Amino acid sequence: MGARNENRFRHRLSRPSPALIVAIIALIISMGGTGYAAFTLPNNSVGTKQLKNGSVTSAKVKRHSLTRAQINLKKLGTVPKAQTAAPTGRAGGALAGTYPNPFIRPAEPVHLVGAPGQPAFDVQWTNFGNGFQPAGFYKDPFGTVHLQGDVARPDATSMDAVIFILPAGYCPAGGIENFPAYGFGGTVAGVAVRSDCRVVFVAGKPALIGLGAVQFRAG
Predict the structure, then answer these.
(1) What's the CA gap between 80 and 101, in Å, rounded?
(2) Would you say 200 and 151 are in contact if contact means Cβ atoms under 8 Å apart?
(3) Assigned domain for 171 exists
């Protein structure tokens, strides 16, 4: 009788069925999930001390969330090629100053005709005087030559007369004929700038010729 009861006890302690194992695992997972869902961190409770080095990767950083204050620019490498990168350093060409805030370079000073070291008037041509602007020329930062001033010549019968000669670098390519100019008494006069740099009176009354409207691209 005792042996029979012992066998029954051993039979009751046999390994559990697969169905029971699956049920137990499901119960454990469900209880663990519920506990995790119920556990939340208070705001601002995780800081630098709680983060392990290398735990925050680039994939975990929100785009546009970092500013210059959080980035060590010295550790960034040189960009080999960038189509939209802003220029840096000293500006050149028609610009002066430095990037990122360059400005248009001012025009050069006016070269006054007849002044020391500057082109001289041709025979009989002079500044009109009487408070009118003296004859001169200058080049702006974009390479355009501007004439200025009012000139006169007593000989009212002479045409195609040279007023003065521009220096090299201030001449139009191929020459330009018959610029409209202000003439004596409000009449229309004509001025040409030849490819050999001669500024020439071609039409009107030379008692007064205004050069302020003459401008051209240097060739």
Answers:
(1) 23
(2) no
(3) yes
Q: 134, 112 in Cβ contact below 8 A?
A: yes
Write the CA distances from 22 to 28, 29, 33, integer angstroms. 10, 11, 16
Which range of residues forms the domain containing residue 32?
A: 2-38
Spans in the chain with pLDDT lower than 50? 34, 36-37
Q: For residue 88, is it within any domain?
A: yes
Q: Exposed e or buried b for every residue in 97-122, given b needs 16+ CB within 10 A?
A: eeeeebeebeeeebbbbeeeeebebb
Q: Are residues 141 and 89 in the same domain?
A: no
164 and 194 inside one domain: yes
Residue 29 is inside which H or E element, if any? helix 18-38
Domain annotation covers residue 58 = no
Residue of 160, 139, 163 whose CA lies nearest to 151:
163
76: left (phi over 0), alpha (psi -120 to 50) or beta: beta
**33 shares its domain with 130:** no
- Do 85 and 134 lie in one domain? The reply is no
Question: How does pLDDT run across 74-131, given as a tens digit for each residue?
Answer: 777 766 666 766 778 888 887 888 888 887 888 899 999 999 999 999 988 999 999 9
Phi-psi region of 197 (alpha: psi -120 to 50; beta: other; left: phi over 0): left
Take residue 57 and report the two structure tokens written for it: 């990767």
Q: Which structure tokens are listed for 113? A: 């005709």
Residue type, 183: G
